[in-house]
Fold this sequence. Notes:
Blueprint: E1 3-8, E2 11-16, H1 18-23, E3 57-61, H2 86-97, E4 103-107, H3 117-126, E5 130-135, H4 142-147, E6 154-158, H5 167-180, E7 184-189, H6 198-208, E8 213-216, H7 228-231, H8 235-252, E9 256-258, H9 263-269, H10 273-277, E10 290-293, E11 298-300, E12 310-311, H11 317-321, H12 323-329, H13 337-340, H14 345-348, H15 353-358
Parallel strand pairs: 3-4, 3-10, 4-5, 5-6, 6-7, 7-8, 8-9
Antiparallel strand pairs: 1-2, 10-11, 11-12
Amino acid sequence: xxxxxxxxxxxxxxxxxxxxxxxxxxxxxxxxxxxxxxxxxxxxxxxxxxxxxxxxxxxxxxxxxxxxxxxxxxxxxxxxxxxxxxxxxxxxxxxxxxxxxxxxxxxxxxxxxxxxxxxxxxxxxxxxxxxxxxxxxxxxxxxxxxxxxxxxxxxxxxxxxxxxxxxxxxxxxxxxxxxxxxxxxxxxxxxxxxxxxxxxxxxxxxxxxxxxxxxxxxxxxxxxxxxxxxxxxxxxxxxxxxxxxxxxxxxxxxxxxxxxxxxxxxxxxxxxxxxxxxxxxxxxxxxxxxxxxxxxxxxxxxxxxxxxxxxxxxxxxxxxxxxxxxxxxxxxxxxxxxxxxxxxxxxxxxxxxxxxxxxxxxxxxxxxxxxx
Length: 372
């Protein structure tokens, strides 16, 4: 891999080789002539798609307010939160644009609680950033969906099991967004308690018109920190998960993805390389493909991590010169214990760094919640 192409219709990022770019008339940067690692280069310490010099996506927390107070919320957002001043968010957009990212994800809290969300999406495009967002769906009206047309590259809706906080509203929101013409998917936090409802979530998401289902691992932050140990999948569930996801996706004709925190569970539980290849999963992308800015204006390698890279006003220098970022980029080479000898470490990366931080473990330690 030597280049990345970003598209809007469909929304996606495509990792391509030098020959592909040259056929399109692109000669590339000076890095082409400085021995940049190639996919078959053993010196590349991580998976080939994880070696870019800059992140491909930035997340900005534009509000700590939320109309719900879900027990598993990793930020602890709720009705008493606040939205950032719009001009401050615009300055953050300008800063992350200097990192040459493709996408910017507006997060929270509940992003629709920010009164100027649509204006912020327009501003993102002015900086050549494709904006995306995720919502719990409760505030998605037909009118809002129409006003948002042409602004967001993608809007995902966080869905719930029947009877949950977001139950009917979330699936109705997917339908409203799809009817208005948005690319819309569903997000679902998979826990020990919701594991048996996964088939119904696939069915309801497909029926509502979602184009895909993003399955996420619970995170040990915010209100969710006190529940994390009880929510984490048990060993039997972890081992059953790869086959179950493939079976449900086929049954309901709904593509799926797994987030980078859940991916290590898939990577270590998939019985063979052929099945693993069907997931296209990558482990921790913090500091490599992802940068985040919190509601206080501090940049991080991941929204789940406490380590600060710099204040957003110090980007891009803070990103390129930070020892925090460098530690994540070199993580695969320093893994310890069972991860240090695992043949899949280059794509797993050792597991979720936020989980290690939660348990007081070093970045190089194996994710303690992996079943093997």
